[in-house]
Specification:
Layout (H helix, E strand, L loop, with lengths): L24 H14 L4 H11 L4 H16 L5 H14 L5 H10 L4 H11 L5 H11 L8 H13 L4 H29 L1
C-alpha cells in the first residue's frame, strides 16, 4: 500500500510542530523563572530552551543573553551550584559512582574544571565499595551465582560509574561470603546427620 506524502502530516510520526509566538525579553525572563522553578538546570540547558522560544535573529539572541546574565546576577542560575546539587543527588539518591556522575555533568554542558572540583569535593572520603553495595541493595540486584549473572552485575555496576577495582572487590567478597555460607550450611547438615 502506497501512502501519498500529503497524508503523512496526519500520522503520529508526521506531526507538524505547532508554531509558537516568539517571546520578548520580559516574557523570556518569566519563562526562564518558571522553568528554573520546576527543576534545576545548567546554563547550557536553559540557553537551549530560551533560544527555542526567543525571536529569531540577533534581537532574540541578545534577549537570551540578557536573561541569562540577569539570572546569574540574581544568583538564580549557577553552573557551580547546579553541579554540586546534581552530584549530591546522584550520589545519595541513585548511588552512582564518580565516573557516571562525571559523564552526566559533561552531558549537561558543565565546564571540565567545575566538574573536577565538584567531584573531588563530593567523593572525598567516600568508600566506593560501600557505595557499590548500597547501589546493589537499592537496585535490588541479587548476588551473582554463575558466570552469566556475574557478567550481568559487572555490566550494571560499570554503567553506574564504579571503578573496576571496587566492583571486583565487592564481587569477590560476595563470592567468598556465598562460599562461607555454603560451607556453614554443609557443616550444619553434617552435624544433624
Amino acid at each position: 500500500m502506497v501512502i501519498p506524502l500529503a497524508n503523512l502530516s496526519f500520522m503520529a510520526f508526521g506531526r507538524q510542530r505547532v508554531s509558537r509566538t516568539p517571546l520578548d525579553r520580559d516574557q523570556l525572563m518569566e519563562y526562564a523563572l518558571k522553568s528554573l522553578g520546576a527543576r534545576m538546570q545548567s546554563v547550557r540547558d536553559l540557553r537551549r530552551k530560551l533560544i527555542d522560544r526567543a525571536e529569531p535573529g540577533p534581537s532574540g539572541a541578545e534577549a537570551v543573553d540578557w536573561v541569562l546574565a540577569k539570572l546569574q546576577e540574581l544568583r538564580y542560575l549557577s553552573d557551580d551550584r547546579f553541579a554540586a546539587d546534581f552530584t549530591r543527588l546522584r550520589q545519595e539518591n541513585r548511588s552512582f559512582g564518580r565516573r557516571r556522575v562525571q559523564q552526566d555533568l559533561q552531558a549537561k554542558g558543565i565546564a571540565s574544571e567545575v566538574i573536577q572540583t565538584t567531584l573531588d569535593e563530593a567523593y572525598e572520603g567516600v568508600d566506593e565499595q560501600a557505595l557499590v553495595r548500597q547501589h546493589l541493595e537499592r537496585r535490588r540486584i541479587p548476588p551473582p551465582t554463575d558466570e552469566k549473572s556475574t557478567a550481568r552485575v559487572l555490566r550494571r555496576l560499570t554503567a553506574a560509574g564504579f571503578s573496576s577495582k571496587a566492583i571486583f572487590a565487592v564481587l569477590r567478597s560476595l563470592k567468598s561470603g556465598e562460599q562461607a555460607l555454603d560451607r556453614a550450611e554443609a557443616d550444619a547438615s553434617d552435624d544433624l546427620a
